[in-house]
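TonB-dependent receptor
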Amino acid sequence: MIHLSRAPAITGAALFFAAPAQAQSEPASGDITVTAQRREEEASRVPIAITVLGGEQIEDEAIANLDRLGTKVPNLYLARNFGTSSGALVFLRGVGEGDSIFTNDPPVGIYVDDVLLPRSTGALLDLIDIERIEVLRGPQGTLYGRNTSGGALRVLTRRPDTTRTGGAADLTLGSYGRFDVRGTVNLPVTPTMAVRLSGISRVQRGWGRNLVDGDRINGQQVQGGRASLLWKPGARVTVFATADLTIDRSGPRFPQRFAADPARPGRLLPAFVAPDGDLDNFLSADTRPLGDTDTGGASLRVDLDLGGATLSSITGYRALRSRIGFDQTATPPGEGNVILLQDQRQHSTSQEVQLTGTAWDGAVDLLAGLYYSGEHNDQLTALSSAVPAGSAGARFRTDDFFVAPSRGAGTSGNWSPYEPRLDTDSYSAYGSATGHLGARATLTAGLRFTDERKRYDVRFLTAPGTVLVLPDGRPARRTLARRWTDVSPRLAADYLVQGTGWQATAYASLAKGFRSGSFDGRARNIDFVLNRQDAIAPEKVWSREVGVKSRLFDRRLTLNIDYFVNSYTDIAFSAARANTIPPDIFRQNVGDARISGLEADWSFRVLPGLELGGWAATLADRFTRLAASPGCTAFVADERQLDLRFTPAFRYQLNASLVRPLGKGQLRLGGEYSGSSPYDIALCNEPQHRVDNAESANARIGYELGDWAVILSATNLTDRRYNSGSVGSIGYPVAPREVQVQVRRRF
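Predicted C-alpha cells:
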C-alpha cells in the first residue's frame, strides 16, 4: 500500500538550480509586448493579472506540453483530465470544470491563434514552434467570448517569415522508452508570402504495467503537424492561415483503487492500493485499452489597415473524434469490472469580425466586434462489464458497447448504452473603450452581449441504431432546447508612477464572467431523463480586483501583486454519488460561493546571468448559499463548510536560472520547486479525494554551442506520487520521475 504522505523537501542546493517559472520570458530588465486586450501593449501596463511565457523560455525549459503550465501560473491547476491522455483539466482561481463530457463547457477558455478550442478533450496541446503563451486570470468575457468566466489561456504560434529560410529540429530520448522527434521549417515563397511547417512524433512505451496481461500502459503515441501561411498581397492587407492535425493513439490512463479505511467500514483512505507493492503495477480487466483521439482544424485571419483603424476577420474550424475506454473499478476480470466506453464526434465553426482603432488623436482606444460559434457533438456511451477479447480496438468492430452492459433491472433505472447529442449556436456583440487621461492614467469600459441556444437530444439503445421501446410503447428518447442571454460588463482603471530605474502601475477592475447553461450528459436513469431532467442553469462570476505591477532596482526586479474577490453564483458541479461502483455521476447547480485570493509573482536578476523568481498565491472559499443538499452530510455536518474543488489555501513556486559562458558556448542551469497546502478534488470532500502532498521539483542543465544545444532535464525529481484526479473509489497517480535528454539544432 502506498500512502499519500509528505516526503522530505528538496534541498536548498537543488533549489538553486530551479528553472525560471516567472511569468516573463524576457529578463527582469525587459518587458514583453502582449495582445491580451486585442492591441499591442507592454505586459506591465495591462490592467489584468497576466502571466506570459515566451517561446524562448518554452524551448529552454523543454516544456513539451501544456500540462507543464500548472506550476508556472499563480492559482492555476492544469493537468491531464481523469483517465485521458489529451484532455485538459483546468481550474483557475477556483473556477473550472472537472468532467470532460461535451455537455459541460470549460469555463477557462483555451485559444490557439485566437480560435477557441471548445472541448477539453484534445486540448492538452503539444507545444512546438510557439511565439508565446498568455494566461489571463479572472473573467475575460468582454474580449474573449465563450467559456472565459474563469480566465483565458492564449497560445500564439510563430508566424512565417518572408525574409529568411530557416528552421529547427530536436530529438529527445528519455525514461520508459521515450522517443520524440520534432521539426520546424520556414520557407519564403515570394517577397510577400511565406509558409511554415511544424511536425512532431512522440512515443513512450508507458510507465505502468497491467498485471492481468503483462502489457505496458500509460504510454504515449502522438503524431501531429501544423502548416501556416503568411501573405501580404498589399501594403494594407495581411492574411494568416493555419491548418493542424493531431493523431493520438496513446490509450487511456489507468487508475488505482483507494485503500479501505479499517476504522470506518465503507469509507476509503487517501492512499492507493499498490498491486504487488508497486504503484506502477495495475490490475485492470481492460486488456484491450482504447484511447484514440484525432483533433484538427483550420483558421484564417485577414487584417485590413483602414488608416487609423484595423478591420479583422477571424474564421475557425475545429473537429474531434475520440474513442476511449475508462476503467471504472480498477479490478481484474470477474471481480465486478466495469469499463466506460465513449465514441465522441465533434465539429465547430466560428466567425469573428473585429474593428480596432483610436479616436480623438489617440486619446481613446476603441474595439468593437461580432462573434458567432456553431458546434455539434454526439457520443455513443456505454458501461460494459465485458472482458475485452480479440485484437486491439475490437470494441469498435464487434459492437462491444452492447456486450454485457451495466444497467439496472427493468426500463426505469440506469441504462446503457445511450447516446447524447448537443447542438449549440452562440452569438455575441462586444465593445470596449480605453481613455488615456494624460500619459499616466487610463480608464476602460467594456460590454458584451451573448445569446446562446442549445438543443440536447438523448436516446437509449438496445442495438446499434435501435432505440429502446418502453412497455407503454414510447421510444426511450427525449429532446430539450433552451436559450440563455447575458450582458457582461468590464470596468478598469490604472495609473503609472515612475522614477529613475523604476516604475509601478496600480490598477483596479470589475468584471463579469458568464458560462451558459448545460444539460447532464452523464444522466442515464431512464425515468429521470424522460420525465424529470431539465437544464442546468448558467454560471456567473463577478470579479473585483486590485493590483500593482512594478519594476524596481534599475528594473532588475519585476514584482506583481494582486488581490481579488469572486462572487460565484449557480455553480454547476458534476459529482459521483457516494458508495456507487461504478461511479454514478450526476450534475446540478449546487449554489453560490465567495472566492478570494492574494497573488504575487516576482523575478529578480541578482547578477548578470543569474535570476531568482517564483510566485505565491492564496485562496479562501466558502459557500454563501446552497440551492439544495448535494448529499454530502455523511462527510460534513454543515454542507456550507464544503471546500470547493482545487482550492488550496496556499500554493507557491520557487525557481532560479543561471547562464554562464563555457568555452565557445553557454552553460544553462535551472529548475523549479512547487508545493501546495491540502485541497479537495470532489464535491463532498470525501477523505480519499483529499490531496495533502502535491509537491514537485523539476531541473535541467543545458549547453549551447552555435546552432546546437543539448538539454538534460528531469521532472518530478522527488518521485512524489500524489493523486492528480479521482472519482468514486479510484484515482490517478501522477507520473513517476522521468529523465530525458534533448539535442536541438537550428538552421
